[in-house]
Structures are given as C-alpha cells and as structure tokens.
Write a structure and sequence with these properties.
Layout: E1 5-10, H1 13-18, H2 20-26, H3 33-43, E2 50-55, E3 58-59
Antiparallel strand pairs: 1-2, 2-3
C-alpha cells in the first residue's frame, strides 16, 4: 500500500530532475532540466534544499 503524499527533500540529481516541471513553472527563465540540476547542486553548498510533495516517484508540488 502506498503511503500517499509525503513531503521530503530531493537529495540527488534524479530527484531534482523530477522536480523540474514544478520549478520551471515558478522559474520560467530556466531553459532545461540540466541547468536546473546544476544550479540546485551548486546552491546545495550554501545549504539550499528542495522540499517536494511526492506521490510515489512523482513530484506533485
């Protein structure tokens, strides 16, 4: 049975990439998923983290 919707941080490149559809709606200047993953990875050095609502492997928001 699925635990339903859970909030958790995106912790690797694949999870950050899964967040791209939501992030690109908020930041339309981002051109593609690789630009987003690189930016988020670089910001992680300054303790930036991405919290997402997950339903299984899908990011809802």
């Amino acid at each position: 049975m699925s635990p339903g919707i859970v909030l958790r941080h995106a912790t690797d490149a694949d999870e950050l990439a899964a967040c791209f559809p939501v992030i690109s709606a908020l930041r339309p200047a981002l051109k593609d998923v690789s630009e987003w993953v690189e930016a988020a990875t670089n910001m992680a050095a300054d303790d930036y983290r991405v919290l997402a609502a997950w339903d299984g492997g899908q990011v809802l928001g």
